[in-house]
Amino acid sequence: MGRTGGDMERRLLLVFLVALIVRPVTSETAPKRLSWPAVAAQQHSYSFRDASKARLSMTIRSRTGRPLYLLQCANTDLSGEGEVMPGDFACWLKATDPGIVSRIGPENLLSPTPFGGSRFDDSGDDVHDRESVWVWQLIGKCGDYPDFGRQRVFRLRGMKLTMVFRNVQTSLDDDNVYPALKSFDLSVSVHGDETAISSIAAPSPFDAFGSPESDPHGCESVKTNTEERVQVPSHYPAIRKTEFSFKFPVDAPAPNGSNNSDNPVWTRSILGEDGRAAYEFSCLDDGTPVSSTATVIPGPRYAKEGIGIVNSGIWCRLLEPGTKGPNLLDLTPDPYSRTSRAEVFPDQLRGACADYPEWGNQRSFRLHGMKVTMFMDEIKFGRTEVDLAGFPSPDLIGVKIHVTVAPDPLATSPAPEQVKYADWSLVPTTCHRPILNPLAVTPSP
């Protein structure tokens, strides 16, 4: 039996309506795989007869000769804005090609943390930063320690950068605790490494050792890095489904008047089936008001002289009761940005970026036999300042977070599973096109 004219018209109308509703996937919106420009292999050697005047500037180019990065090393001011590099010698790597400059993140791509400082700790610990070189790390047995001695390897952005110190000479100085760095030779090599995908230097596989005062025998034995090692418990406590919401004016003081890692702004207990606290969920203001003339790092973002950033966003934690860490939500950082989805930045909640899957206003974490879901609305922004990368960055002054914690027997991982899409904020792209996460776990049925 043939179709009637009325049937055909209805089918055409249906197709037309579906075309209006369903947004076509184009090359501009389809998920993409991120890749870094291939670097040209190169090696340079430097000899510094007077370590106090040691200084180098080296351009890292693409295979076609295009300048991509600038490596600078010295023991004096490199930024031209009065910032003194830590250590007896230090190095600084930055992207110079506009096409690969990250939206936000550290100025120094060799930094071990996404924002160049420890969360809620503006002081940091320079002896654990491989880009900062101290004289006692280059001499004796400490000089043989991998990645924190005379040879240091940085893997990032499709390349492996290796620095090797040789012929290190020191001189005694009664005014100093340690010998002074007198002279040294340095070789720097760059080679392509397609497995190095992070925007900043990947963590070393070795643990750092402290200064002779704090850790006098620290370099005598090599220790592997435990930063990402996750302890697998014998069992996970069965939990009750829990739902709660937090509404907070982010720039208001915490209960005791300060915002820091020991003073969560919001805290709720996740109860087990036995009625006892199985976990504690908390969220903190990820920034502290700063002086308008201070040069500091408030939380993870930078503030430069003359600009006081009031707030940087929200940082949420899931802890076992009675402990200060580790934060279970932080244990699987993004492979590109090294950030965690437990950190919520204003840029990620603004406009189309709020809809970016798993990095916008809705995020889910599957681990420990449960699924933790965060949904954010009633978002309010304050003033917008230009950050150090030259991009406008808004202050987050209000947000409501809805949290649901539900049992999930298929979530057997001790750490959150890697999600399908990667963070867009520290790579040279925007939130309008999702980036595929190469470490993503196939969702359980």
Could you explain the architecture of this structure?
This protein is mostly beta strands and 445 residues long. It folds into two domains: 151 residues, no CATH class; 195 residues, no CATH class. The chain is built from one helix and 18 strands. The strands form five sheets. Strands 1-8-7-6 form a four-stranded antiparallel β-sheet, with no helix packed on it. Strands 2-3-4-5 form a four-stranded antiparallel β-sheet, with no helix packed on it. A hairpin with a 5-residue loop joins strand 2 and strand 3. The longest helix is centred in the N-terminal third of the chain and has 17 residues. About 13% of the residues have low confidence.
The strand line-up of the biggest sheet is 1-8-7-6
Q: Would you identify the regions where 5 or more consecutive residues have pLDDT less than 50?
A: 15-27, 116-124, 250-264, 288-310
The secondary-structure class comes to mainly beta
> What average pLDDT do the residues reach?
78
Strand-residue proportion:
25-35%
Number of domains: 2
Number of H- or I-type helical stretches: 1
Give a quick account of the main beta sheet: strands, pairing sense, barrel closure: 4 strands, antiparallel
SSE arrangement, N to C? HEEEEEEEEEEEEEEEEEE
Shape: globular
Radius of gyration: 25 Å
Distance between the termini: 42 Å
Helix content: under 10%
Q: What's the β-strand tally?
A: 18
